[in-house]
Amino acid sequence: MTRAHVTVVERASELRPGGQAVGARRVTRRVIDRMGLDAAVRAARTESVGTNTVDTDGTVLETFRADDHGRDG
């Protein structure tokens, strides 16, 4: 098996106090499984129920729930 050494770098003007949700669906989940990382990914997951997009006044413009795609995320 070929292994790759990967470095993930996020560019931002300053350290953010929060993070960004990452969805893993379909082929991504198959890749995670083939890499033997399923248990590690599951151990590191957050139990997010979804996310909202809001405008500058805080008005919710749209909502994406974690179970919108059959709990596949």
Residue share in helix = 10-25%
Major β-sheet strand ordering: 1-2
Our Rg estimate from Cα atoms comes to 16 Å
Q: Number of helical runs?
A: 2
Query: What is the number of strand segments?
Result: 2
Task: Kindly report the oligomeric state of this protein.
Answer: single chain
Using the alpha-carbon principal axes, give the shape: extended
Describe the model.
Strand 1 and strand 2 form a beta hairpin. The protein has helices spanning 27-34, 38-44, and strands at residues 50-54, 60-65. A two-stranded antiparallel ribbon has the order 1-2. It has a domain at 27-65. It starts with 26 loop residues before the first helix and ends in an 8-residue tail after the last strand. With 73 residues, it is α+β, with helices and mostly antiparallel strands. The protein is 21% helix and 15% strand. The longest helix is centred in the middle third of the chain and has 8 residues, at 27-34.
